[in-house]
Amino acid sequence: MAMRILVLGGTGYIGAAVVAEFKAHGHAVVALARSAAAATRLERQGCTIVRGDMRQPAAWLPRVGAVGAVVHTAATFDSEMAAADRRLVDSLLEHFGRGAPGPRILYTGGVWLYGADGAEVINETSPFEPLRDFAWMVEHRNLLVASAGVDAVIVHPAMVYDRDGGVISMFLEDARAGGPIRIVGTEGVRWPMVHRDDLAVLYRLALERGRAGHDYLGVAEPAVAVVDIARSIAGRFGLTNDVAVRSTAEFVREKGGWAAGYALDQQVSGAKAQGELGWRPRRRDILREVGAAEAPG
Rounded to the nearest 10 degrees, what angle do helices 13-24 and 196-209 cross at? Predict the structure, then answer.
């Protein structure tokens, strides 16, 4: 059944793909837009626009109108990220939790909330062991799940990529500069992977079929050696000085504490989403995808 859905972060890397997926399947999208450029881009996709900043939800929430769901893919990625997200979550619960039943709220977590235990396969029953800089995300997830006024479902994306962007962007920058491609931590680090387009399908299925209060890990490939991803990209660009390892401490000094996630060695299962929701990721070979001279058909 088609819904009217409020999407937060609709021009972001994940959010833009989610908006396209929702529109392709007949859902009406109301999108928050902070800038005129974002509004224009979303209008071209057929979205209804609400102008505003996620940091100030009280200013725009009254203008949203009735919706069947809220999909939260937004983040500020600055020093106020936790405070801004908490303000938004509190405002969503206050605004939409008054009626009965309230809308479904799809919240975005991430595999970094489960910590690193390369010897064990992480799934939805694994305990949260978040990076310190993302511990607030578990708290906000718990607030939503515990609320009787809304119907919360949580999607935890793996490392999200497409052939020319996402988590591999820094590798591509190194490759275009002539290499070497710098990876973080050690050559033993493995990442769970998901293509952006497959992840967008999971968001739609979680919206339409997900069980209230449940977490779904968005993982197409459970554990891919990061050094192999880097070397596939190096081969695509014809580099001979292919890979260099940089310390986690150096990378964190450059990017911030959250960047320690790039050094987490994880094996993560996407079996629950595939079994319960019928999610069938189509892109399951990142090494071929990012390493081929031409985009795979």
Answer: 60
Asked whether the beta carbons of 155 and 218 are under 8 A apart, the reply is yes
- pLDDT tens for 23-71 read 999 999 999 999 999 999 999 999 999 999 999 999 999 999 999 999 9
pTM above 0.85, yes or no: yes
What is the Cα Rg of the chain in Å?
19
Q: What is the DSSP string of 182-214?
A: EEES-TT-EEEEEEHHHHHHHHHHHHHHPPTT-
Rounded to whole angstroms, the Cα distance separating 201 from 216 reads 13
120: left (phi over 0), alpha (psi -120 to 50) or beta: beta
Q: Are 67 and 4 in contact (CB under 8 A)?
A: yes
CB 146: neighbour CB atoms within 10 A?
A: 10
pLDDT digits (tens, 9 = 90+) for 4-30: 999 999 999 999 999 999 999 999 999
Report CA torsion sign: 2, 7, 11, 16: negative
Find the DSSP H helices in 246-292. 248-255, 271-277, 286-291
Contacts of 268 (CB under 8 A, 6+ apart): 111, 114, 121, 122, 123, 158, 192, 217, 219, 222, 223
